[in-house]
Every structure is written in structure tokens, then in C-alpha cells.
């Protein structure tokens, strides 16, 4: 792991009163237990301070978030793995079901868990370039849980979601725009944040209680589904980790990453 | 209120045997209890006479329907408010779940409840011009109930519905066409009705029992959901009316309408 | 019935290890009990041999499958009709819920049950020409059961599905492409099979367990719904067959087919 420079998450309130939540776990914002805990705390803080809106982004110049930290899944301590998973569930429930306005300034690659976090926001602006976004879990031999799928089906048509999920499809910015996986593209991070703010300003004259309840109502299906099946969902994840085939897939993937890094 | 000229609803059968249901509560077909009751009775009549099809339109030159009459919600008599709401539920169940063919000739603005009525039909033709359509409840501080949302999600993708519902988006005719909120545009009311008839004629050779059951089956989800939650839905509406914040939003909205009218 | 040349189904494994399941009941692959039983057995064989993938196609030069054999429904032996229907349910559950990769090379017309079989696959390539595809049950006075509708809504937007189902819409190849009912068009059968193989090759590097579970998870809703309501679904079908109006519709349809054939 790279040495950690500063806190794992930076939460600031900008001049417009908008909370900017910047993930900061170099090099690629891999979502390990500690980063997820810090994201969760920041979401609590935004909610507690009744900040009207939040933009989620990354401190990395090229990666929004690489997704779940594979080291939390490879040869895991099952006790920690369970806390890891329930923390991820918590973060999603807080973010997908938040009462405040949420937007993602996707300033780099957003595979798997990175894609999930951005899809859990209400609006997505992605920086142009070679970056890609998608739920590519199957490429690693992992099955995206039901609530990952539900979140994707809340964003793009189910036919597109099935194709993307099974083929581990990573969308280019243009492809993501076309299918509706993102809402806008931007020239750079500053432009992405500006466009997120423009989205947030659409709500200036909308009474915030009605807006929040409306959002939570239309998102109720996936939220209630996870809340009802939380224990089973956790059990499935842990069962998956115990599967030798899965561990083998993860090992092969880690080897391929090491070979890439060595080049 | 403007003086009422003639009955609140005109129901006629045209030469093709198609029922034309014209809302006629000047100036803007605000849906108050009495108008909803008359619409409900007309829908019953169409069903009873086994008329094959119905076109819903407005006698106003510029408004299809302005939606629920805000005066039914502002400082309400709760007894009347309850009847108002259950009557609205009845109208929707009759229209959305009707066995006969339904089309809306949207000859003017169709915000909120006006949009709901048109979306509950099977086909929508809207007259070109400055008219707009959408579920803009949040702008008034109101939350569209689940069955309004379900009706919209039956018409346009859920991602588009969430964006539209939270931002109180009013679609222009072109925007509505593009997203699928309407099926066709028309040059004027006569053209809109002609296009509705063209849609209706598509069923000339389709056995009507199979057509009706097919329609009701694919609409079963939203229908059953309201039928199961009717009492709770009514309680939510009444609870909402009792909320001082909601009453304040309504008051501000009424003031803004008065100021507009005074100009 | 035309004399049967060879077995009702041809199942072969090609050089790439892909199973090719060819329906072969001349002249139009009407799905009668025997053909459905043979398809079911072939699907079992593909699953048992752990073949990675399967392409479904037809031996006819112009028809993929004409759908359910109307002679199974017209003046039926109810005992046989029940076995017919449960066999169709079985085929759908095996195909829609299969763990192996599935693609349809639609080399001709695909109305009703023919459309259902192709939609139950994960990918559809259709040969250009005058061929059409759709769930046109209502034209025959029949109601497509809920799981036919669910399968269509898994493929195209619900608004499009309602319109298509009620109007008995048959899509041209171009229309099917545009709405997403098929994924690609092809110049002929060989080209269609090539394009199916190209789709299948997308999974070469995807661990197959994760792919299979992902597919089955996103298809869980419709699968569980039929499994829960199987008996009721069968009872509905049998009740439908007993309806004199339905029998009359079927008779009229059979007459029109005879008239066409006589020209």
C-alpha cells in the first residue's frame, strides 16, 4: 500500500454552501474498510449539518475510485470482511437514500465500486479522456450483489444493465453518455464540479422537504430490498469469499496487476 | 372561481363511435372534487355502454388541465379533503385500469394532475406551441404520491422520471416527444384528436377482450400497489396537508399566482 | 401437418465448442408439445455437458418459429393442453434461466412464441429482409401470459412493450433494432451465427461461474414470479381455452390461414 498523505477523505464546504467530499486514498482510492468508514462519517456529517447538497469526487488525477479493495477479499480475515461488507452497505444506504442533493464529479476511471458510488448519486458528470466506467465485477470472478444491480437498473435500462454486468463492460465517456450511465461530460475536474453545481442550482427554488421525500420515495424499492435482505446479503458475500474458485480468480487478477506494475 | 358555463364535463360519442370526454371547468380545468366526480361518472358511463374507446381532452384553448385544485389542499376541510383524495384515486384506477382504449389529446398545458391524467391513457398527442407537461409537484412543496410516480415510470425510464420528479421538470413538446412522455405532436386540437383516432383504429382487427386483458395485465403492478395501500396513501395525503411547512409553501404559491394575475 | 423429415431438433457442437440448437419442424417450427419436449431435452443436454454456450436457430429458410401451434389450443384435449403448457413453462425456465451463454440467430419470422424464445436468450441477431418479430398474441384473441410480458419488459422499455403487446405489433428488422428488441441485423443465417459467436466470444476471459450467477440474479424477478404462480398460470391458460370467444377467435384465424394457403 502507498504511504497515506493526509486524511482518507477531505470534506469541505465551498462558497456556495455545497459540501465537496474528496476521496483521498492514493494511488487509486481502493475502497478498503478504513476509507469506507471515513466516507460514511462524512456522509453523516453532511446530513447532520443539513448541508443542502454534496459533490463526490477524487483527489487522484486519473482515478475516481478503483472500487472495492481486492485485499479485503483475498485470503480474508472473515471477521474483518464482515465489518467491511456491512460498512459498504451502510455507505450505500446513506448515499443512495440521502435527503440532501448528491452529484458525482467523476474525474477518472470508475470501475466496480467506483461506478456504484457514482450511480448512487443523483447526477453524474465525467471528465473526457481515456477514462472508463462500469460494473466489471464478473471479470474478476465476482458477482455484483443485487443492490449493485438495482442501482444500475435505476440508472440505465435493464437490457443494457444485463449486457454490461455479464460482459463486465467498461463504458467510455461517450458510450456512458449515450446509454445514460452519466449525464454530462466535462473537459476537466473543475468543469465537472461546475456542471455538478449547475445541476444542484436547479433545486434553488424547490422546497427541500418535498424534494428529499420525492427522491427517497422513487428510490424506495432498492433501499427496502437491501434493508430486508441485509443479513442474507452479507452471508452471501462471506460465502463467496470462502469459495476456492473465487479466491483463485482473485489471485490470478492480483498476479496480472503485479505483472502490469512490473512493466 | 370563474362562473361555470355548462356542465363540468362533456361526454359525447362521435361518428366513429369513439367517446370524447372534454373537461370543462374554466379557466384551467383545476381538478377539484366536483370535476373529479364528474370525470369519474363519465368513465363509468363509457365502461357501462361498452364504448370501445375514449379520447380525453379539454374545452380550454390553452390548458389541458392545471392539475389538482390547490384550493382543495390549502387550509382544507379534512373531511372534504379525504373525499377529494379517494375520488382522485378512483378516477385513476378507472382510467389507468380501463378495459376500453384510451388516448389523450393534450391541447394545452398539462402540469401535475393534468400530466397524470394524460399518462394514465394509453396514447398521448400534444398540440405544438408553448405548452408544457410534467409532474412538477415538488415546485409547490408537494410530494407526488407513489402511484403518480408509478404512472410516470410506466411511461418514461425511471432515471428520467427521478430527474423530472425531483426538479419539477416541465417538458416542452419536443422534450416530451424525445423522452417518450408523449407519442406524437399535433398542429392543433383537431389534428390531435385525429391522431388519437388513428391510434384507436390500430385496434380495429384486434379482439377486444384479449386487448383489454393484456392492457390490464401489464398495468397490474401499479394498480395492485395502490389498491393494497389506499388507506395509507390517503392518510399520507391528509398528514401532508396538516404539515405547516406544506401549508406555507401552498400559501406562497397562491400569492405568486395572485401577483401574476394582477400584472 | 407436413411430413416430418428427420428429428424435430438438431443439436450439434461446432468447432468452437458452441452448441447449435436448430428447430426443425417444417414448415414453420410451430411449437407443439413434441417440439417443445425436444427443445427441453436439448437444453438439458447442453446444461449437462457443461457446454459453455448455445445458439438457437431454425432449419427453415424463412421462419424462425411461428410460435405456439394453434392446433394445441383449438378444440383442445385439456389433458394434453395442460402438459403442453407446463412443457412450455419448463422450456422458458430452462432457457431464460440457463447458466450457459445463449444467443438467437433469428433467420426468419418470429411471431409470438418464436419471439418469446429469442427474447429468452441473452443476444439476438436477425437476418435482414421482410421478416418480422413481436408478441402478436392479441391479434389471435389470446392474452400473452405475465411471463411473456416480463420477458419483453426485460428486453425493451415497458412503454414500448405495452404498445406492442396491445396492438399485436410485428416489428421489422429496422424497427426491432431501434427499440432494442434485437441487438444486430445480419445479411444471412451464416452471418447471423457468426455475429452470435462474436457475442459469445466476449465472455472468453470472464470466469463462467460469476457470469452465470450474475445472469441468473438479474433475471431472478421474472423467474421467481413464474415459479410462484405456475399452477395459477396453467389454470388461466386452460380457462382461456375453455372460453367460447377465444375458440371463435382461433377458428377465424385458422380460416384466414386456410384462405391464404388456398390463394
Give an overview of the whole structure.
Three copies of one chain form a homotrimer. By secondary structure, the first copy, chain A, is α/β, with parallel strands linked by helices. Chain A has one domain: 2-enoyl-CoA Hydratase, Chain A, domain 1 (Alpha-Beta Complex), CATH 3.90.226.10. Chain A is built from ten helices and eleven strands. In chain A, the strands form three sheets. Chain A has a six-stranded mixed β-sheet with strand order 1-2-4-6-8-11, with helices on both faces. In chain A, strands 7-9-10 form a three-stranded mixed β-sheet. A two-stranded parallel sheet of chain A has the order 3-5. In chain A, strand 1 and strand 2 (19-23) form a beta hairpin. In chain A, helix 2 packs antiparallel against helix 9 (220-242). Chain A is globular, with a radius of gyration of 18 Å. Chain A binds chain B through residues 122-123, 153-157, 180, 202-203, 205-207, 209-211, 213-215, 217-220, and chain B through 137-144, 146, 149, 153, 157-159, 161-163, 165-168, 245-246, 249.
Amino acid at each position: 500500500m502507498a504511504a497515506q498523505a493526509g486524511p482518507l477523505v477531505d470534506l469541505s464546504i465551498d462558497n456556495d454552501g455545497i459540501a465537496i467530499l474528496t476521496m483521498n486514498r492514493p494511488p487509486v482510492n481502493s475502497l478498503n474498510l478504513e476509507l469506507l468508514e471515513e466516507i460514511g462519517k462524512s456522509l453523516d456529517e453532511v446530513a447532520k449539518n443539513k448541508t443542502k447538497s454534496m459533490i463526490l469526487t477524487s483527489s487522484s488525477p486519473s482515478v475516481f475510485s478503483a472500487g472495492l479493495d481486492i485485499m479485503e477479499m483475498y485470503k480474508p480475515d472473515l471477521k474483518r470482511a464482515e465489518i467491511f461488507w456491512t460498512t459498504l452497505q451502510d455507505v450505500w444506504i446513506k448515499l443512495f437514500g440521502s435527503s440532501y442533493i448528491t452529484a458525482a464529479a467523476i474525474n477518472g476511471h470508475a470501475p466496480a465500486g467506483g461506478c456504484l458510488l457514482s450511480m448512487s448519486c443523483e447526477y453524474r458528470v465525467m471528465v473526457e479522456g481515456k477514462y472508463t466506467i462500469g460494473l466489471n465485477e464478473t471479470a474478476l470472478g465476482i458477482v455484483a450483489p443485487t443492490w449493485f444491480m438495482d442501482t444500475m437498473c435505476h440508472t440505465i435500462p435493464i437490457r443494457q444493465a444485463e449486457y454490461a454486468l455479464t460482459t463486465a463492460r467498461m463504458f467510455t465517456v461517450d458510450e456512458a453518455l449515450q446509454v445514460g450511465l452519466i449525464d454530462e461530460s466535462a473537459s476537466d475536474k473543475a468543469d465537472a464540479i461546475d456542471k455538478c453545481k449547475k445541476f444542484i442550482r436547479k433545486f434553488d427554488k424547490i422546497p427541500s422537504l418535498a424534494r428529499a421525500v420525492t427522491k427517497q420515495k422513487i428510490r424506495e424499492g432498492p433501499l427496502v430490498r437491501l434493508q430486508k435482505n441485509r443479513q442474507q446479503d452479507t452471508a452471501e458475500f462471506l460465502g463467496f469469499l470462502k469459495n476456492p474458485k473465487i479466491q483463485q480468480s482473485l489471485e490470478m487478477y492480483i498476479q496480472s496487476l503485479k505483472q502490469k506494475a512490473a512493466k
